[in-house]
Design brief:
By secondary structure, this protein is α/β, with parallel strands linked by helices. It contains eleven helices and eleven strands. Strand 4, helix 4 and strand 5 form a beta-alpha-beta unit. The two termini are 22 Å apart.
């Protein structure tokens, strides 16, 4: 098989983990490839992914080769693959738009962004010249204008788009139709983790539902120390994030909860946690005879590697979409790995659909 050529916008912790993973699984066999949901998708292994273009706005990353940039501040995720080969690809200056929240300037540069003074490049030209087939969007939460700008760049360059952050593009009919008309596949919106707060909350909510327990009240509160959590201290940037995470849980229930009884959203920024995310989850319900019960759960995960396993699958399924000439949302993989896909499915059905899509039984 050939390579899957991708471009990445936002060389933060998530891009770091993705690129580490591409090289970590190189040379491994299926038996020792721990941590993957799929070893082989359509003949493609994780190491068949190649980064051919990269964009960021931080002066510590712009102009650096990709292998240097992924370890530059303020990135702080776990290093599980130290030996990254030298890349010929350098990080180009992207467009800021609303990608940097104003309050970030109040924090030490070790933890926040330092915007480069370089002029932005012509993104469409860079994408075309690089030979990229897929653009992976890892922009910060709240980057509404920037996410749409890069989606349009993907359209103009004629390449696929994977939207890993909570701006509704793939789940927006207008944007979906644009990609469908051009015969370009898209996957989104807002990446899940392999075992994270959202997938755990959804699984427990479905368990309540399937076992006849009435879920009366629930909250999910998360803390972390990466730039994503620092960025989300600005609550004005959280509307789409909160909607995405809340809808992921509400969609599992046979009857939607009142808004006042469900609270899901980031809580606070704790610098020393770095890329470790703590989820505090509580669910209150009633069992047989209206007898009350509750669950409290504490989940600790390294945030960025946790999502990279899902993106690895999204990229390879997107490549299959390109090969098969499919335009518009790939609903199976989107439902499986995204919090706010065009079609919300239970996780077991989403998994079945992904398997059928990979085998060719399901169109999208």
């Amino acid at each position: 098989m050939g390579k899957i050529k991708i471009a990445v916008v936002g060389i933060g912790n998530c891009a770091n983990s993705l690129i580490q993973g591409i090289h970590y699984y190189d040379g491994k066999d299926p038996e020792d490839a721990i941590g993957l949901m799929h070893w082989n998708i359509g003949g493609y292994k994780p190491s068949d992914i190649e980064v051919v273009a990269a964009f960021d706005i931080d002066e510590r990353k712009v102009g650096k080769t990709v292998n240097e940039a992924i370890f530059a501040k303020p990135n702080c995720t776990s290093v599980f693959q130290e030996n990254i080969p030298k890349y010929d690809v350098k990080v180009k200056m992207g467009h800021v738009f609303d990608g940097v929240a104003e309050h970030m300037s109040n924090y030490d540069e070790e933890y926040t962004f330092k915007v480069s003074e370089e002029d932005p490049v012509d993104v469409v030209k860079e994408l075309k010249d690089s030979g990229a087939e897929i653009l992976v969007n890892y922009l910060p939460v709240g980057s509404e204008k920037a996410a749409r700008f890069y989606a349009q760049c993907a359209l103009d360059a004629g390449i696929a788009y994977i939207n890993c952050m909570p701006v509704f593009i793939v789940s927006d009919d207008e944007w979906a139709d644009k990609f469908k008309e051009k015969g370009i596949p898209i996957v989104g919106d807002d990446i899940k983790a392999q075992i994270g707060a959202t997938i755990t909350h959804r699984t427990l909510a479905k368990l309540f539902n399937d076992r006849g327990v009435k879920l009366d009240k629930t909250y999910q509160i998360n803390t972390g120390g990466n730039t994503d959590f620092l960025n989300m201290l600005n609550r004005d940037r959280l509307d789409s994030k909160k909607e995405s995470k809340t809808e992921a849980v509400q969609s599992i229930l046979s009857k939607r909860m009142d808004d006042r009884d469900i609270h899901i959203g980031p809580s606070d920024y704790v610098p020393w946690q770095k890329d470790n995310k703590l989820c505090f989850l509580r669910m209150e319900g009633r069992t047989f005879g209206d007898v009350p019960m509750n669950i409290e759960l504490r989940l600790s995960v390294e945030d960025s590697p946790n999502s990279a396993g899902c993106v690895i699958d999204a990229i390879r399924c997107c490549k299959l979409g390109l090969e098969r000439g499919i335009g518009g949302p790939l609903t199976s993989i989107s439902s499986y790995v995204m919090k706010h896909p065009p079609i919300q499915l239970t996780d077991d059905l989403a998994y079945e659909n992904v398997e059928k899509f990979i085998s060719g039984e399901l169109e999208r």
